Amino acid sequence: GETFASKIANNAAEFDSPQKAGAFLAAGLVLFLLTFVVNSIARIVINRSKAFSE
Question: Where would you tag: which of 15, 31, 48, 53 has the fewest CB atoms within 10 A of its CB?
Fold first, then answer.
């Protein structure tokens, strides 16, 4: 199966309407925000585990 990011990249050439382009732009923004949140949570968990191990 395709990943969410690869679907956006593979369909970039098919942005033939403003609605389609906006939908893919919104999907890319959601993907970015989700990645940012997951990475932030991971950093918090790692920093807390380092603090407890010292």
Answer: 53
